[in-house]
Amino acid sequence: MKDQNSTNIDRLPFTNAESELELEILEEHKSLHIGRLVDSDERRGIITYIDRARAFGFLQSDCGEVIFFHAYDCLDKPFGQLRTGMRVSFLLANSDKGNKVKAIGVRVV
């Protein structure tokens, strides 16, 4: 078993993984979206709507775009702890639903 200090956490710039297992899960999560990323620029915005029962929400980017996100795209806080008005950072990925984008790697800042 590797020492926790030997994990290569810096490979995921938008994570604050604290264990090797968490890092592996986040790497797997990221690999699901690799190739679907719009670009590698981290964006910021504010959560504007959360539907806890259906596990999704919307955020408004600093550029004014309204962007969908799913509970499994939240990295540093459990979905249930997110609140409207929270400031977040995220990456954009192409959505499976037509010509839309969605936020992934959503992290409270």
Quick recap:
Helix content is 13%, strand content 33%. By secondary structure, it is mostly beta strands.
What does this structure look like?
The chain is mainly β. It has a single domain, classed as Nucleic acid-binding proteins (OB fold (Dihydrolipoamide Acetyltransferase, E2P)), CATH 2.40.50.140. The protein has one helix spanning 20-33, and strands at 43-51, 56-61, 66-70, 87-94, 101-108.
Note the topology.
Elements: H1 20-33, E1 43-51, E2 56-61, E3 66-70, E4 87-94, E5 101-108
Antiparallel strand pairs: 1-2, 1-4, 2-3, 4-5
Strand order of the largest sheet: 3-2-1-4-5
CATH topology: OB fold (Dihydrolipoamide Acetyltransferase, E2P)
Calculate the mean pLDDT score and round it.
Answer: 76
Can you count the beta strands? 5
- The proportion of residues in beta strands is 25-35%
Query: Globular, elongated, flat, extended or rod-shaped: what is the shape?
Result: globular
Q: How many domain modules?
A: 1
The CATH homologous superfamily is called Nucleic acid-binding proteins
* CATH architecture assignment name: Beta Barrel
Reading off the top of the CATH hierarchy, the class is best stated as Mainly Beta
